[in-house]
Design a protein that fits this description.
By secondary structure, the chain is α+β, with helices and mostly antiparallel strands. The chain is built from 2 helices and 4 strands; from the N terminus they run E-E-E-H-E-H. A hairpin with a 2-residue loop joins strand 2 and strand 3. The protein is elongated, with a radius of gyration of 16 Å. 12% of the residues are buried.
């Protein structure tokens, strides 16, 4: 890795629409986090955010919304992703500043 150069992974976010619910699906390496957009459950959102913070300790990432529709959910989710990415960047910088990121040790 080049010293002073930051590498950020870009992860996918998708909107899953069905008759009962609409969800924002955040894909993180080996798992998916779901935020239901059609109900108000702050505990689920908080749990998803806590998982994102745990992942931020391992590597830096942002999300990009992949959706082929142009409806209200797309607009809301795009704004949510923009705000989330700003928060993730700020939190990652604070984790680095306080030495709370996981560092990989190179093997011989």
């Amino acid at each position: 890795m080049v010293k002073g150069v930051k590498f950020m992974e870009i992860l996918k976010a998708n909107i899953v629409r069905n008759a009962e619910t609409t969800k924002l699906l955040l894909s993180i390496r080996d798992k998916n986090l779901e935020i239901v957009l059609t109900s108000d459950n702050p505990i689920v959102v908080k749990q998803a955010f806590n998982e994102l913070i745990m992942e931020l300790k391992k590597y830096e990432f942002n999300f990009v919304l992949e959706d082929d529709r142009e409806d209200l959910y797309t607009l809301v989710c795009q704004e949510y992703i923009n705000q989330l990415n700003n928060e993730l960047t700020t939190i990652r910088d604070e984790l680095v500043e306080h030495g709370l990121v996981e560092t990989k040790v190179a093997e011989a």
